[in-house]
Amino acid sequence: MGSMTKTDNANLELKVELRRRVLKAARFRRPLRVLDLYAGEGKIWRHLRAEFKLAGYTPCDIRPRMAGTLKANVTPLFVEAIASGHYNVIDIDTYGEPWATWAAVAHRIHQRAAIFLTHGVVGMGQTSHMALEAMGIPHAWKIPVKPHIARFAARFFIVPEFVKLRIESAWRAEAGNATYYGLVVSPLDKAKPPALSSAENNG
Ligand SMILES: C[S@@+](CC[C@H](N)C(=O)[O-])C[C@H]1O[C@@H](n2cnc3c(N)ncnc32)[C@H](O)[C@@H]1O
After folding, report:
1. Each residue of 84-123: pLDDT tens digit?
2. I want to staple 160 with a disulfide (CB 3.0 to 4.6 A). Which of 92, 103, 111, 187 is the partner?
3. CA–CA distance from 96 to each of 38, 92, 107, 115 (Å)?
């Protein structure tokens, strides 16, 4: 049927490698302060801590399985309460869709940051109401339950609506039911204004 076993780290190597590449490419001048919103057993960051110097690491999970984990149901309200803007690395390695959490995080980004998202296609490829809404599709419509629709929806969420963010660089990796994204973002206000294209210059 349409169920998917929730496997925490089926692609641990891939997840670690994605983060390694993004962090190396980002060349942050500031110390890394990591907010790991779905920390689980903390396997990903246990690997990365051995390679990168972290100035801070805050693990959160609804079912803590690692000493020091903040027990929390991660909701947009929680993201606000935890002052996520203080962190420059935010890991959203959830099951299913990361979009609501990412939108809440994105609204609070005030500095250059690396973001990691896991998008797991649930069941046969269910697309959430939130995703359908963003695409302007009424809930009542019977759209095909297909993984590629859920994946297509992703492009509506990578840059959340009404958020002034510039994506400096982005990585994507796919394995099984999951797509992994790594982004380096900066607040648009602090970024240089985009250069006019030659057509606009001539016009
Ligand atoms: C894919 S696992 C994370 C694996 C982890 N990144 C690691 O390195 O081991 C997803 C985690 O999300 C947690 N989770 C699921 N829903 C949550 C929620 N609403 N709030 C907080 N944590 C949640 C689960 O308990 C699980 O530990």
Report:
1. 889 999 999 999 899 999 999 999 999 999 999 999 877 6
2. 103
3. 12, 11, 21, 17
Question: Could you give the CA distance from residue 191 to residue 29 in angstroms, rounded to a whole number?
Answer: 16
Distance 42 CA to ligand 1 centre (A): 9
Segment 28-73, tens digit of pLDDT: 999 999 999 999 999 999 999 999 999 999 999 999 999 999 999 9
Q: What is the pTM of this model?
A: 0.88
Half-sphere exposure of 16 (CA within 13 A, CB side): 16
Torsion of CA 158, 164, 170, 173, to 10 degrees: -20
Check if 73 has its Cβ closer than 6 Å to any atom of ligand 1. yes
Q: What are the DSSP calls for 41-73, one per residue?
A: T-HHHHHHHTTS-EEEEEEEESS--STTPEE--
